Amino acid sequence: MELDALFWGPNWTGCPRDEFRTRVEDAISGNAWVADGNYAGQLGDLVLERAELVVWLDLPLRVTFPRLWRRTRQRMRDRTKLWPGNRETWRGALFSRDSLFFWALRTNRQRRAQYEESLARYDFVRLRSARETQDWLRGAILTDESKPLRSLP
């Protein structure tokens, strides 16, 4: 489940907090689910408290920023419809006060420190490179379902 899909409405309007929490609670009420995203400001620890394992992709900004750029550029070029029918635009991506690029640059260091602190009480895996992520996934795929997945040593 993409938390973005549960949060965003038409014309990039955010879902009211109570409604968003209800949508997320419904989505994570089953026995098996995977959540993509954070939204701690809206949800607190709602998702984390119910997760068996948290996988933190803590890739450096030098990796994530170019990926963000390529993904956004491709979505704009292809006019990809996002949640629920929104499209990314040059204006929104680069010139808006809500620009994801400026947000990524402005909050990267602070978010990493906050994640490290807030995730300390949960069972989590921190993956800091593409190689580490590939190795962990390879191990997860090869792991018997009855065994818990664990971080790299």
Write a concise synopsis of the structure shown:
The protein has 153 residues and is mainly alpha-helical. It contains 8 helices and 2 strands, in the order ααααβαααβα.
Report what the structure shows.
54% of the residues lie in helices and 5% in strands. The protein has 153 residues and is mainly α. The model is unreliable at 149-153 (pLDDT under 50).
List keywords for this structure.
two-stranded parallel sheet; globular; 153 residues; mainly alpha
Q: Topology of this structure?
A:
Elements: H1 3-7, H2 17-27, H3 40-43, H4 46-50, E1 54-57, H5 61-78, H6 90-95, H7 100-119, E2 124-127, H8 130-142
Parallel strand pairs: 1-2
Helix pairs in contact: 5-7
Number of strands: 2
**Rounded average pLDDT:** 90
From the helix content, strand content and strand pairing, which structural class follows?
Answer: mainly alpha
Task: State the share of residues found in helices, binned by percent.
Answer: 40-55%
Distance between the termini: 29 Å
Tell me about the largest β-sheet.
Answer: 2 strands, parallel
Rg over CA atoms, rounded to whole Å, is 17 Å
Query: Strand-and-helix sequence, N→C?
Result: HHHHEHHHEH
Which spans have pLDDT < 50 for at least 5 consecutive residues?
A: 149-153
Tally of contiguous helical segments: 8
Approximate strand percentage = 5-15%
| Overall outline | globular
Strands across the major sheet, in which order? 1-2
